[in-house]
Design goal:
single chain, 4-stranded parallel sheet, 11 strands, about 35% helix, binds iron/sulfur cluster
Length: about 350
């Protein structure tokens, strides 16, 4: 791989067409902000955050359902930590816990199986939120719950596939000129679906890992492709992303889930964008109503690359990490919170 200082020098010397490059994934946004890469770019190269924060796009209706369940008798909601403070229309899970609701944080979906076995008198409800990266583990948890006959474990499934959102981004009035593709999604799906989109939209897509050097290399490769007028997929993370992805994970997803239309908070309903348990797993699902109020949050425009977080009138004013209005200010992968904690406060 080209040395990092040479990569950065080439980026600074870029003299191709103006470039708007979107990183789909919040983990890439975090790497960019923490590394200071944005400040090193030429003026006519912009990095945009994309729709790849699963917590940010989880509809308020799913949060409301989890809040309601956390307050139900003998019921405990289990979720990843970044779900706790995301506001629904009736508050967050953290607020529900302060009101006496039962909410437990977990680090892997499989921990919910252990909790259900250890506490048979309690109904546990697992908040299944994520993209292709985590969906196979939630599928495995649901499969094992069924195999083991765990009657006191249920799921609220808000899992999504990232590709319909990429298509939405590419069909906006001012789409990005290139995409940095998320290596952890590619590890499951392979590079083939990204290659198909790169070909359809005639743009450079570069698959990258999550170290700052990986992201810098992806930006460098994209700028080189733009200057040469090239399109297509380039995989800079071949040690993790194979052309066909992870067949076992794909088989698990296929066995447990089917795709359905799904509401993306701030973006609306996207066809065939959400995973839903298929028979015989549907009996383990509790479900929720899509939709919910936005309270003036502009997360949708941020997620489409139409607005940078500081351009939101609420950013740093009524919306801060201590008092978030929208999910993008709360999640560890949310662009607004990352910008704010990265020194982008106004
Ligand atoms: Fe939403 Fe707050 Fe971000 Fe504005 S600053 S888009 S209100 S999360």
């Amino acid at each position: 791989m080209k040395p990092l200082d040479a990569v950065l020098a080439d980026i600074r010397a870029y003299d191709g067409p103006p470039a708007r490059v979107m990183e789909i994934c919040g983990t890439h946004t975090a790497a960019i902000l923490r590394s200071g890469l944005r400040e090193l770019l030429p003026l006519d190269v912009r990095l945009l955050s994309g729709p790849g924060c699963p917590v940010c796009v989880t509809p308020a209706g799913a949060i409301d359902r989890l809040v309601e369940l956390s307050l139900a008798p003998d019921t405990c909601v289990v979720c990843f930590g970044d779900m706790l403070r995301v506001p629904g229309t009736a508050g967050s899970l953290a607020e529900a816990r302060a009101r006496g609701g039962q909410v437990r944080m977990i680090y892997t979906p499989l921990a919910a199986l252990s909790l259900a076995k250890e506490h048979p008198q309690t109904r546990f409800v697992l908040a299944a939120v994520g993209f292709e990266t985590t969906a196979p583990v939630f599928a495995l948890a649901m499969k094992r719950a069924r195999e083991e006959g765990l009657a006191n474990l249920r799921f609220v499934t808000a899992l999504k596939t990232v590709f319909p959102a990429v298509e939405l981004v590419m069909n906006t009035k001012n789409p990005p000129d290139a995409l940095i593709c998320p290596g952890h999604v590619g590890a499951v799906t392979g590079q083939v679906p990204f290659a198909a989109l790169a070909a359809r939209y005639g743009k450079p897509f570069v698959m990258a890992g999550f170290e700052p050097a990986h992201v810098a290399a992806a930006v460098w490769r994209i700028l080189r492709m733009l200057k040469r007028g090239e399109a297509g997929i380039q995989n800079l993370y071949p040690e993790v992303v194979r052309p066909a992805g992870n067949p076992r994970a794909a088989a698990l997803l296929e066995e447990v889930y089917t795709l359905r239309n799904s509401d993306w908070r701030g973006l609306g309903v996207l066809p065939n964008s959400g995973y839903a348990p298929r028979e015989p797993y549907a009996a383990w699902e509790l479900g929720y109503d899509d939709g919910g109020a936005s309270d003036g949050c502009a997360c949708g425009a941020v997620l489409l690359g139409e607005m940078s977080p500081p351009d939101c009138p609420l950013y740093g004013q009524t919306c801060t990490p201590a008092s978030p209005v929208g999910p993008c200010m709360v999640s560890g992968e949310g662009a607004c919170g990352l910008w704010y904690s990265g020194g982008g406060a106004v």
